[in-house]
Predict the 3D structure of the following.
Amino acid sequence: MIKLTDIEKIYRTNTIETTALNKININIDKGEFVAIMGPSGCGKSTLLNIIGLLDAPTGGMINIDNQAVTSLSRKKLAVFRNLKLGFIFQSYHLINDLSVIDNVELPLLYRSGISGAERRKRAMEALGKVGLGARTKHYPNQLSGGQRQRVAIARAIIGNPEILLADEPTGNLDSAMGDEVMNLMLHLNKTDGTTIVMVTHDAHMAKKTQRIIHFFDGQQVS
Amino acid sequence: MILHLFKMILKRKKTYFFLFLQLFVAFMALFLVMGLNMKKFSNYFQPLGYNYEDVWLVEPDFQNVPEDKKAEYNNLILEKLRTIKEVELVSAAQVIPFQQWGSEEKITYKKQIIKALKFEVDEHYKDVMDISLVEGRWFTANDYVLNTIPVVVTRDLAERDFKNDSPLGKTILIGGKKALIVGISEAIRENTSANLTPGFFMPLQTAAGKYLLKSENTENFQLLEDKVRKSVTSVGAAEIQIKQNISLTLVKKYAHKIDYIQLSITFVVFIFLLVNIFLGISGMFSYNLSKRKAEVGLRVIMGASPSQILMQFLGESMVLTTLGILPGVLIAAQMLIMQYFEPYTNEYYGILSILFSALFLYLLMLSCAFYPSLKAARLNPSDALHEE
């Protein structure tokens, strides 16, 4: 599903050259739930940004769903992200001026051929999946952290993406809420067959996934 | 998408309050400047109703002349002016285009009191100023002996106050005195920028003090000026000075100069206002967008292409403009319905002013929003997402 070949990411300034990722080769199968672990600054999030097509690698090839994506234009990348990828962040990144349902609808707003009624219906379904069907008209600042993260998950899955990319999704939550969110992702992985790549510091959460990839100083160590 | 933008803007109405206020004030200012000047500007293309090009103006100064001698000297000067070879005709009048117009007077017709402009002139005024008659005749010296005042009404007054009735032969009251309408003249205007002024011509009730000379030699300034001066001094009263000895073409030029100065000041103030509006709006828009970088990043991550981000923020600027100018449009429309700006503007130019002001602000807002929106569209999503 995801094939990374010799991925390099080097940040250059006038005086300093920093290698964030050094010749990374990873294969992730369809329906796999993978955790990426490592200390801060080891390149986990950089890798996730590259898989999410938010950042371009300095070198190497990325294949997602048998498609080489490194050479795609910004417009095509946007369409690809919208159709294939879903994102979950540590700090939720909900738009506070939009209601829960409007936040969830957001990815479909950028997909052509979907009517307002259809968007609403699918948003209701997604919110139902995460157990927030009764909170559609609330605003993010009226919800708890766990609820906000569930809204973010509903937003990530509304477009039926094949891949979910989660950047420390339980990082801001207490253990009970973290477990709740983790179980939700496990459920999505199991029932819908969604491929999930999760960056985490939490070994307890990582153990629940099918595979753990360890990073250190921009290199894959296991 | 429009509904989405409306929702977001309404939720942020407090943030956008000053932008709305600025747009409202800008709209009202534009509407007033355009509304009050468009009609004036359009008047430049309308006929004046008379011909001023072959006319010379003379105004003797009787300030130092004893009261009992004024009428005598007046007649003497008139006679002298008539003897100038180059002068075809002389008219004594209190109505001088581009300089001194009629005074407002109440006339009574069928027990209704109407306001109109009174033009006190003599029997030669029509020929000197080349005023066309639509119907009837101009008054003559023979009319002065009658008990009623002979009156020539302008076409616009006839249309306004007599509707389908012909005013010819009708008796009206002017200041309690009976007056008979003997003719209808073409409508006339004070100057090239002025509106039509419904009014009536009547014989001089007091000494005019100003003379209009019809002459084909008005372009030979030196010649006429000298001859007029000699005529006035030949009356033999040293205390009589000459206040004005000039062609109407020059009078018009001076009047226009003042007009142009007024227009230039309006224009400078207008440009200053626009620059301020532009800086204010673009500054506010840039600031608001800079506070929304994380949102931009999120939208890109959710699948918005750079052009969609650009279009979203441009669309947002259009929604903001609509909400900002809406109260102004309603107030301006209400003012037009109440005829608040008559006679400076009318319904037609009022509506045009609303449309142009709105269009102008939409374009201004687009130009203010374009660069910040373009910058937003070019943001790196992962960097933008972490800028709170």
